[in-house]
Amino acid sequence: MRCPWNELKGPDGLALLEVNDLHVFYGNIEALKGISIQAEAGQIVAILGGNGAGKTTTLRAISGLLRPRSGSITFGGKSLVGISAHSIVALGLSHVPEGRRIFNVLTVEENLSLGGYLIRSRTQLVKERKAAVYALFPRLAERRLQLAGTLSGGEQQMLAIGRAMMSEPRVLMLDEPSLGLAPILAKSVLRTVREIASRGTTVLLVEQNARQALAIAQRAYVIEVGRVVLEGDASELARDERVQKAYLGGFEGVAAS
Amino acid sequence: MGPFLEYTVIGLTVGSFYALVALGYTIVYGIIRLINFAQGDLSMVGAFLGWTLLVSFGLQSLPLPIALVLVFVLPMIGTAAVNLVVLEVAYKPLLNKSLLAILISALACSIILSNGAEWKWGAAIQAYPPSLLPSEGFNVGPVHLTFVQVALFVISVLLMGGLYAFIQGTTLGTAMRALAVDHDAARLMGINVNQVIRLAFVLGAMLAAASGVMLGLYYVQIQFTLGFLLGLRAFTAAVLGGIGNIPGAMAGGMLIGLLEAYTTGYISGKWEDVIVFGVLITVLVIRPTGLFGERVAVRM
Amino acid sequence: MSSDDLLGAILLFFVVLAGLRLFAYSRLSEEPRFNGWLNRVDRVPYWSRVIAFLVGIGAIAYVQGDEYFTSVLVGVATYAMLGLGLNIVVGFAGLLDLGYAAFFAIGAYTSALLTTLPQTHWNFFVTVPLAILFTGTAGAILGYPTLRLRSDYLAIVTLGFGEMTRVAFNNWDYAGGPNGILQIPFPEIPKISIGGQSFGYVFQSQFDFLIIGLALLAIAMIFAQNLEHSRLGRGWIAIREDEFAAESVGVPSVRLKLFAYVMGGMWGGLAGGFFATRIGAIDPTSFTFTLSVYALIVIVLGGTGSLPGVLLGALIVVGLPEVLRQFDEQRLLVFGVALLLVILLLPQGLWARIRRRPKPFYGLQEEEAGQVADRILREHQQQMEERDARHAAAGHRVIQEGEAILEVQGVVQQFGGLRAVDNVTFDVKRGEIFSIIGPNGGGKTTLFNCITGVQRPKAGKIFIDGRPVAGLRPHVIAARGVGRTFQGIRLFKQMAVFENVMVGLYPRHRTMTWQALLHTPGERKDEVRTLQESRRWLGFVGLEHLAGRLATELPYADQRRVEIARALAAHPHLVLFDEPAAGMNPTEKLELDGIIRKIRGLGITVVLIEHDMSLVMRISDRIAVLDHGTLIALGKPAQIQQDPAVIEAYLGRDDDEVPVERAQGA
What ipTM was assigned to the predicted interfaces of this complex? Predict the structure, then answer.
């Protein structure tokens, strides 16, 4: 699955995915107040922050589900602002939304078929990619003909990721993949994320489990009320006291007081 | 036993017309939660297009198989075009507005279509050429079947079968079902939601037009008002089967047709509406999402 | 001027007026002079405005003196009455009704039968109340079995009801079958002799009918307005906006929906009775689905929920086809196109109800900030004492400070194969601030939903105030003194901020519907008190200055505070806040901290779901930690901070399968 373009930077020295000064409004309410994020090819970039901080909004704006009021999003040098969501997928950017959003009345196989919607006329390719997904998640292969709604939480998450991988994206955006999963499952999902990244796919990861996210990420951003308040090398952030206090702790931070 | 089977045959024939229109309601509703009140009027448009072809364009003088194909296919295409215009002009701008606004828009379209038809084709009753299909029939046991009944039933079963195969068997059909679950997730698969909505409108209109032509061939007489009752029955059928549910719409249509035939046969035609709606309300009170359960998108 | 020209001119005038109004609202909404003028108009009693307007219409008809023109106006009045009734069902309560003609028919037939049957031969004016009674009952009959159906299903069920009613009249020989009822007498005031002079009058000219029509319309308008501005009206709109949230703040949604059907039916009965006597002969073809559709168009065209909009809608629906008579055959086609254009250009309607108020508390007695706090405290203590007294009088044990006010015992909640809450037991003591923390998806909100009656737990017991709450509807639990807020804010979006809080006061109202209809002095006092209290609660959370805004116009942090005010409005003794700090910046969080402490200061027990650890640790007396549905720790903040199980659940273990050199936490 290694793709040559993932080795490349965008033109003009831009990162593969560049978000610049993004403002998003819901009605009159400003949900994002100037977010800037960069993801280099092949990196895992973590986005951390509390509930309501704007992480999901950021991902939705990048994937075209929301229209930003101002700011730029460029992907491989091409602006994504104003492009509809389904065309953005075609450009090579896949988004696994919060809460998985699998099609619960369809079978596992049908869900994957839809993941390969854009290549639906190339049946051989669809078959190959399905096989690759089943290789990545053998559990899904066992449940091919089961309705997706009957899968367990962990299996649904695998399906959601597998479905997104069907389009062989250059950038994969994951919104809280470990939500509601038992620790052991959460860990295995994150392990898979790392495996996907190691094959050359760039991953934008929104996670509540800050420590685990920072552990597999190269770069990280901390968002608070629609703004980036901290950014930097994931390993540095993992040691940063402010992150500790805000997300990793609160425990340790307050214990002193 | 004789009358019972006789009524059953009538019920299934008429029911298949309802089922076709009901499918249109259900496909559109499942995807954008719009009760397309113009659905019945689309049938009427289809019926008149077929009539125009037969009478004014001399289609009836062609060999029967060719005439039959053309009299279905051309109105289906024409009606699909009409429905696309309706979608783009009347529904698209209101999709994210209130449910009521779009409902009124649908009602306005229904008014426009039926009165537009009156303007174009007149208020008088028009007649399909009765000689197109052989009017004689044959007996199967105690039941008398006409060729028209058999032909129309076969055509509607073919259409429904085709639709079912498309919805269940192709990726595009799967995408339509997915859209009934979650629009945003579908977008994230690269599905062009607008395109699929257009497809749903095309399919719905084609089925409606086919049923309109069948109605003309079966009852011979058509009028610009025929869309109303047909639409009403079909809508009832769609809800009875579980709106958004494709097999449900087919079964619902057949059920309503049978119910109607038995009521007319055994009680009185006067009580048709009361019985049909009485059954519908009873079913909904017991099973609030219809006989087969609904499949409906959350409105974004 | 010919009557057609006059009609056209009137139509044009009101449509232009509607346009100017919408324009003025969009451009001048911040302009003090415009707002001052609005407030002055608002101060003029509604009934006098309605009567002045209708007298004006009557005067135009009188001056014009044309039978045809007057008869069109009578038609407008009939449709307006019909629209006002349907507006209650559709506009206020948000229930789709496509069979409204049924009520019109029942009203018309009731009145017609009672005036024509040889056994009765009653006076028209006597039959009207009976027509209203019958249609109200019909509303209950239609409403009761269908209340739990979703709006789209209601569309077909009501449509079916309308058709069934029509067919039933068509087949009912006693009511003339398809021929209907003929020779319905004119309304009359019977002759009576006073001092040798006899009085009495038979209404028979179109102008006579217009007078009756306008009088009935005035009553219908005023009652509809009174209803809208009562707790019932607010309850309806709250249900329309968010039924789930309405239930949770104490609005009994099922009962209110039933009420909407009954009330809507009654208005239809009024219009129907009037229609019958005016036409003189009715038959089932007068009550088709088309009529229901036109009634619906009346209200949507004018602006759903807007009373002046109903008048405008009726004027257009009746008047426009008349003006379009020159198009003869195609007038319905032109009407359809016009309708489509209006709905595309103004989907909110021509005379949309504008709910934001520049000065919602205009004319209320001013209170100083210090006074407000004192008043709230005094009021609240009084409420608490009364509640405790009632509680004791009903034979329940009153929970004292420090005793368990909320007991959760072995609660299990399961969705499919997933145990969202798994055998959780804890209790919350009266007067404490109790936090529930844990990773997302841990079952916290599910637990809240079990406590507030939104969901019924699969196993286990929950007691509030020592009484079990299993199986109670959310509004009952709310009325027992439990307030809550929601994780994803659930305000009534199209209502102003102060109205949101007023809905929260619903359980405390004691006025009856008839009082609301008549706008009695008692009801008026209750309303002023409600308004006054909503203002105090908004002051309590620091939002009085935003009271007139629409809820959705506020930033998130403020919306959360409105939710808190709404949850507090009914003076609960237990509040459940679901992530109140989400989306707040540090300053706002600090303010929230202060508000929560103030709430506790009132003696209210606070249960909090929250992710912001510093807030939780600062403020909580005790903390429960939920992870994967199970309670993994319970104790004081200091204990929780050191609990290894908690740290692991929150942060993951240090030996997580990650490059070890980077995973250096604390």
Answer: 0.89
